[in-house]
Design a protein that fits this description.
426 residues; alpha+beta; Four Helix Bundle (Hemerythrin (Met), subunit A); paralog of FGE (formylglycine-generating enzyme); 2 domains; 4-stranded mixed beta sheet; 3-stranded antiparallel beta sheet; 10 helices
């Protein structure tokens, strides 16, 4: 899942540089800082943080070379530097920040250019994945601030596909949840595969659509306390939430803000920018429930629809990653119909388990039995028990970092991320 050869690592690093700079190239100096919000970082700080991560783990630790920017730890260490102080740091200016990331990535390319050690190869791949996480964050930061869609060289035509209805029936039994010890790369929170007993269940073949969610809204669900958990109702009341983030009602019709544009809803697109509380309220209204994390992984991974003990697939469609099987990498400039990408179906006939929208699960983000923190110790461990698990990736996630055992995690109130959900029968 990650390259070890110098040429492939070089291509990954160069691609990470291109994507990072593409996503900020059209922004003004003022937009690169933006207003101070709890949910996003100032982009000028975030670019430097990506560079610092390569500097720390590849240049300084794996290669044993000196720092490139003096006092960079005091500027860009995300664990040590409180979020609300990042706007006031003595950051390099725009050009200084770009110079810093270019210097760090040039040094990384030099390190990996000739037969990189396993330690250098691993940390270089890890840093590219880390950059990928942040370029997705760049994209939802632009949505948060109402900035135009980021035009990237990755953008490609995305197919239409209408709707897909009904449930997939998944057998019960003992499922091996988590990453196999033979994979070339996984994150620490995926370690390791362990047996979990799963009862038979029915899971929707597709995520909840805008049309379905519109019906929920029009049924005055946001005013119906009976549909909401105590925590969800408190969140909704304290934040004066009356409908989905970015949705606006015009007469009897809804529209939504997509970056800097106000557009009509499209019934077969998945609902996006809903949080865990909203997903649960919808399920209560619909007489459904969210899947557990192990149910989600089971539906995505089986190689036999009738045997839960069948060998697991790395991707819903099989062994190899192919961009044409999932809606990712900013393709199409947004989400596509939930019926698109039929070639990416799992063997259980679930569609878009990878890509289009992140999918909330009912599960709290917890360590697996054999969890051991990786070199980046702060990636998972500080967030266990305080976040909810999401699976699958979005249209703005890099396809190279999406596989069936990959786990995302967010607080249940987050709506700015590219998340939706699919449901299970109760």
């Amino acid at each position: 899942m990650h390259p070890t050869e110098a040429a492939d690592l070089t291509a990954w690093v160069e691609d990470a540089r291109t994507r990072t700079l593409d996503l900020i190239s059209d922004l003004t100096d003022e937009q690169l800082m933006g207003p101070q919000l709890d949910t996003v970082n100032p982009l000028r700080w975030e670019i430097g943080h990506i560079a610092w991560f390569f500097e720390k783990f590849v240049i300084r630790e794996a290669a044993g070379r000196p720092a490139i920017l003096e006092h960079s730890d005091g500027l860009y260490d995300s664990i040590a530097i409180a979020h609300d102080t990042r706007w006031g740091l003595p950051l390099p200016d725009r050009q200084g920040t770009i110079d810093y990331i270019n210097q760090v990535l040039d040094a990384t390319l030099e390190v990996v250019s000739n037969e990189p050690s396993p330690d250098v190869a691993y940390h270089t791949a890890y840093c590219v994945y880390h950059a990928d996480m942040h370029t997705e964050a760049f994209t939802y930061t632009r949505q948060t601030h109402g900035l135009p869609f980021p035009e990237t060289s990755h953008r490609r035509h995305a197919p239409s596909g209408g709707a897909i209805e009904g449930d997939a029936e998944i057998p019960g039994g003992t499922f091996l949840m988590g990453a196999d010890r033979n994979v070339s790369f996984c994150f620490d929170n995926e370690k390791w595969a362990h047996p979990v007993e799963v009862a038979p269940f029915s899971i929707a073949k597709a995520p909840v659509t805008q049309a379905e969610y519109t019906t929920f809204c029009n049924d005055k669900a946001y005013a119906n306390q009976a549909l909401w958990s105590d925590e969800g109702w408190q969140w909704k009341t304290e934040n004066k939430v009356k409908g989905p983030l970015y949705w606006k009602k015009r007469g009897r019709a809804w529209q939504r803000h997509h970056f800097d544009a106000l557009i009509d809803l499209e019934p077969n697109l998945p609902v996006i920018h809903v949080n865990w509380h909203e997903a649960n309220a919808f399920c209560e209204w619909a007489g459904r429930r969210l899947p557990t994390e192990v149910e989600w992984e089971t539906a995505a991974s089986l190689s036999s629809a009738s045997d839960i003990t069948s060998p697991k697939r790395m991707y819903p469609w099989g062994i190899n990653a192919t961009p044409n099987d999932a809606h990712a990498d900013w393709a199409g400039g947004g989400t596509v119909d939930v019926g698109a990408y039929a070639d990416g179906d799992s063997v259980t006939h679930c569609r878009q388990m990878i890509g289009n929208v992140w999918e909330w699960t009912s599960s709290t983000f917890l360590p697996y039995p054999d969890f051991t923190a990786d070199a980046y110790k702060e990636y998972s461990e500080p967030w266990f028990e305080t976040r909810k698990a999401l699976r699958g990736g979005s249209w703005a996630t890099r396809s190279r970092m999406l596989w069936n055992t990959w786990r995302n995690f967010m607080t249940p109130d987050r709506r700015d991320i590219f998340a939706g959900f699919r449901t299970c029968a109760k």
